[in-house]
Amino acid sequence: MEFITLKKHIIMNQLDIPFVRKQFPALSGEWVYFDNAGGTQPARQVGERIQDYLFNTNVQLGASYEISQLSTQRVAEAQETWAKLIHAKETAEVILGPSTTMLLQNLSRSLVQTFNPGDEVIVTNCDHEANIGPWLMMQKQGIVVKSWKVNPENYRLELHDLEKLMTDRTRLVAFTQTSNIIGTINPVREITQFVHDRGAMVCVDAVAYAPHRAINVQELGVDFYVFSLYKVYGPHYSLLFGKKVHLEKLPGINHFFIGRDEIPYKLQPGNVNYELSYGLLGITDYYENLFEHHFENKLAVIADKISQVYQLIEKHEEALATKFIDFLNSHSNIRIIGERTASTAVRVPTFSFIIDHKKSSEVVPLIDLQKIGIRWGDFYARRLIDDLGLLSNHGVIRVSMVHYNTPEEVSRLIKALTPII
Ligand SMILES: Cc1ncc(COP(=O)(O)O)c(C=O)c1O
Questions:
Q1: Is residue 3 within a helix (H) or strand (E), and if so which, with residue range?
Q2: CB under 6 Å to ligand 1: residues?
Q3: Which of 81, 257, 320, 379 is most enclosed, with most CB atoms within 10 A?
Q4: Mean pLDDT of 307-320
Q5: Which DSSP symbol is given to 130?
Q6: Atom of ligand 1 nearest to the CA of 39
């Protein structure tokens, strides 16, 4: 009789979507959220953790009294757990901060002090400005900044173009794992190896990638790696990984009496946000819930559980993406700004497109009326939209999905878009 109690989603090896959606209070309403690359809905457990922190342990860290000891422990646990989750070697390699933009500005302020005038940095033209602007600021200190541009035919960053830009003065290459417009997954490990072979470091923006895959910074070999937790089912907060060997050498940007060996504190001026740090454990609670619901094996290591959960997520996202890309591909007046495939080996389900003879700004408000949240614009990847000649088109229309979306929601969107096309 035992087989009767086995759950269908386990037998089918697929994500139990009603279960997933129950974890997100915002999804109980009538709106469809397809602006997830702008920000995902938070898991219920995130809100619970933040409330628990604020109501029960909201005191200054580091004092000797009991509640302060507990709050210190809670914040430390968040940093430790996320270090494990991304496969950092040590907790000290995880720096938390208010946003990816701010973390990269802080990193640049510190890193520039270790560069010499005439040293070179390479940025791309397809990154969000968060991973371009801070490096351009280095020009004021005599650093030469060059631009690695995507191939406008296939929207890919190509190594032979990077090779032409690199010299023995190149110190850093800043690029994106996945552009928040194009959606293609760049081969980070390969690019990193290529850059390391030429004696430079990499800084990778994983903001548009992190909601869709498990992360392993050691496997990628990256020097610096950053993403925003509010796009990974959490609060408005961000995480920067830096290899300890680099962090140790960086001058701090905190108070003068914070020592050079106080990693990551010397790079967290003003300290972290306590309740949001603790809130990050709500994301891992959510992942743990997913794991326990979908798998019968008992794994001890959080990163292993997450990696299994993301295999289910990937499969579900590919099904959603296939439905939508088939629709886009079936219309000759739609130009996809990115790969025309749903394959998860190639892309994440963030789709940008334009419709012939229509401004992107004309289309989206019509979809709003159907209570479907999508978006138009440059998404702060202004240089890419400009280089592709799409500024006058008011940028692109972007539809970005995550695993809590459903095939029925994709059908609703297709139905809403069809009369407009
Ligand atoms: C790819 C990418 N990088 C960086 C950022 C900036 O993140 P934050 O808002 O945390 O500064 C965004 C935000 O949309 C993004 O999409």
A1: helix 2-5
A2: 99-101, 128, 130, 176, 180, 205, 207-208, 228, 238, 380
A3: 379
A4: 97
A5: G
A6: 14
Distances (CA, A) of 172 to 12, 176, 200, 303: 45, 13, 5, 29
Interior angle at CA 294, CA 213 and CA 285, nearest 5: 65
- Which residue among 128, 231, 378 has the greatest number of ligand 1 atoms within 8 angstroms of its CB, and so is best to mutate? 128
The CA dihedral of 258, 264, 267, 270, to the nearest 10 degrees, is: -70
Best probe residue, ligand 1, of 35, 100, 239, 240 (max atoms within 8 Å of C-beta): 100
**pTM, two decimal places:** 0.97
- Give 41's DSSP letter: P
Distance 207 CA to ligand 1 centre (A): 6
Among candidates 399, 375, 376, which has minimal Cα distance to 324?
399
Distance (Å) from CA 92 to ligand 1 centroid: 23
Per-residue pLDDT reduced to its tens digit, 193-241: 999 999 999 999 999 999 999 999 999 999 999 999 999 999 999 999 9
Residue 186 DSSP symbol: P
Q: Which atom of ligand 1 is nearest to the CA of 379?
A: 14
Domains, the chain, ranges and CATH?
A: 2-42+301-417 (3.90.1150.10), 48-282 (3.40.640.10)
Place of tokens 């293609």: 184
- Alpha-carbon distance 290 to 353, whole Å? 33
Q: Ligand 1 centre from 398 Cα, in Å?
A: 15
pLDDT at residue 33, rounded to an integer: 98
Closest residue by Cα to residue 260 from 84, 87, 102, 113:
113
User: pLDDT tens across 264-281, in order?
Assistant: 999 999 999 999 999 999
- Output phi, psi for 256, to 5 deg: -60, -25
10 Å CB burial of residue 331 (0-12, 13-18, 19+) is middle
In degrees rounded to 5, what are phi and psi of residue 42? -80, 145
Nearest atom in ligand 1 to the alpha carbon of residue 205 is 3
Which atom number of ligand 1 is nearest to the Cα of residue 228? 10
The confidence score (pLDDT) of residue 298 equals 82
- Ligand 1 centre to CA of 132 (Å) is 11
Atom of ligand 1 nearest to the CA of 99: 10
